[in-house]
What does this fold into?
Amino acid sequence: MPETKPFSPYQEQLSILRGRGLSIPNEELALQWLREKNYYRLSAYSLTLRQRDPVSGEDKFLDGASFSDIMELYLFDDQFRAAVFHAASVVETNLKAYIAYYHAQHYGPTGYLDGKTFEDPWRHAKFLNALSKSLNLRKDEPFVLHHHNDLNGIYPLWVIVEVLSFDQISMMYRNLLKPDRAVIAREFYGISSREYIENWIHCAVVARNIAAHGARFYHRKRVNPPAKLPKEINQYGTKPFGYIYALYHLLPSGDRASFVSSIRNCFTSHPTAKLSELGFPEDWEKLLLL
It folds into this structure.
């Protein structure tokens, strides 16, 4: 087995960075960031600031690269994640509301228990099992206790959606009967194709998870699943911009402008961050309208 790299104390980590040509004007601040963020995590934000030396085969920082550049890209990504997380949270809340209203209206408050109202019986059974676990985890919350103790454990769908995760409600939507998915796509999202909504919701879940777990959007080579986009911009489907497009079109129209503004502010606040490192075209705001 290949050997892992040896442990390096903070001062040695700084020496490694300096040895590769990185300017560190404020050593105390750099040490604080290394303590609080982790060398390996920070190093991911230096990928665009260095290149492999053809002679030594080692990574060397570009001329003029500074620890403050790494900090700026880190802060950019942190702000970008916050914007994505907020938008995805709105999308999650909306989806729960749409499904609860539509399904209960057509199949009754507890129609979600009937596998006939879903496309795949096995996935429906898996959903009910996950739901049971979620209810158990939330058993001490007042609204769950109320329905368990006072209403004989009968939970209408508009209650159930409150204990489901974004991933669970996404999978529930993808397992609804096709005509029901189509109606929800058309009536609540104004999109005639349910396939787009299914894909965009899946992308929104993945984007939210990336943001929630502090993973990196900047210099991310590929996102999966690719977002379904109009053919004119289909090449951006595997880039973070594709997920921004999906989130934008899942948001209610009244929330879209503020979302665009929050993304724009990420770039204006941190001008060293490049649009291309997130797969954003120069006219990205215009393309969101396609």
